[in-house]
Amino acid sequence: xxxxxxxxxxxxxxxxxxxxxxxxxxxxxxxxxxxxxxxxxxxxxxxxxxxxxxxxxxxxxxxxxxxxxxxxxxxxxxxxxxxxxxxxxxxxxxxxxxxxxxxxxxx
Length: 107
Fold this sequence. Notes:
Layout: H1 2-16, E1 36-38, E2 46-50, E3 57-62, E4 68-74, E5 78-80, E6 87-95, E7 98-106
Antiparallel strand pairs: 1-2, 2-5, 3-4, 3-6, 6-7
């Protein structure tokens, strides 16, 4: 009897926790190869953000916990990061409806 219950428990476990592969119709975001962030690691209060268009960019910087620590809109290539303490960040650039991300290290 114990074997029967154990077999039913295993069967229930495998069928209820099985996952199907889902095919998403949304294509994966494509990173632009013309997006550059330098110097990285940053040692001064300025980093340069260049893209193919070099237009107005919305910048959002996240810390390692995913919290927004800096937001800015720039029309030039320079971004002031003097408010950031030393650490690792994720920099997200939105320009002309395209989103690009890079890791930023501040020393």
